[in-house]
Design goal:
The complex is a heterodimer. By secondary structure, chain A is mostly beta strands. Chain A is built from no helices and 11 strands.
């Protein structure tokens, strides 16, 4: 069974630009969550989608947005990039029906802002 | 609100020594608990999970964790450390309601000394 796939693996952008990251969950998984990981802040929750609806949201500004498609694939968009947005962005999927189901992570997209 | 605390952001052990990584949770109802491991430039990988069956949970790579309700703890142990165990470890909780939120600890970086 294929794991969670995130594309691209690496991305370099400049301040003010926008970026879209993609996540393909494990087949059959309906929940997709996004996290930002930085050395200083650790793992921070961005948002979670289930069946194309945002079900949970973290404390990030509106520049960070996401969506989920009918095939459960998800995209995350960051507009007006800032230097502080440099991070590893992780996507995780789960079946989503019960809270005892673990999340399965992709290898992340490393975003660098110049 | 539930939370999770990992004591010790860095832990060093000698090869062959016992590994003990600490995790305490704060929740009025015992949550579901997970341990994940992250190797450099990779996503998080599930080591083990507690979902209210046996209190001693065995995971991959020789790791195990014991759920202790009286101590609100879920510490991760391994009898004998290998060099390949050097990585960052995260404890996570998920509530038993239907919020589907996962709360991650700040992580413990394990260093294994030859």
């Amino acid at each position: 069974k294929a794991g969670v796939t995130q594309t691209p693996r690496y991305l370099i952008k400049t301040r003010g630009q926008q970026v879209t990251l993609s996540c393909s969950p494990i087949s059959g998984h309906r929940s997709v969550s996004w996290y930002q990981q930085t050395p200083g802040q650790g793992l921070q929750f961005l948002f979670e989608y289930f069946s194309e609806t945002q079900r949970n949201k973290g404390n990030f500004p509106g520049r960070f947005s996401g969506r989920q498609f009918s095939n459960s694939r998800s995209e995350m968009n960051v507009s007006t990039l800032e230097l502080g947005d440099s991070a590893l962005y992780l996507c995780a999927s789960s079946l989503g029906g019960l809270s005892n189901q673990p999340q399965h992570f992709g290898d992340g997209t490393r975003l660098s802002i110049l | 609100a539930q939370s999770v605390t990992q004591l010790g952001s860095h832990v060093s052990v000698s090869e062959g020594a016992l590994v003990l990584l600490r995790c305490n949770y704060s929740s009025s109802v015992p949550p579901y608990l997970f341990w994940y491991v992250q190797y450099p430039n990779q996503g998080l990988q599930l080591l083990l999970k507690y979902t209210s069956a046996a209190t001693l949970v065995k995971g991959i790579n020789g790791f195990e964790a014991e759920f202790k309700k009286s101590e609100t703890s879920f510490h991760l142990t391994k009898p004998s450390a290998h060099m390949s165990d050097a990585a960052e470890y995260f404890c996570a909780v998920s509530d038993r309601g239907r919020t589907y939120k996962y709360i991650f600890g700040t992580g413990t970086r394990l260093k294994v000394l030859a």
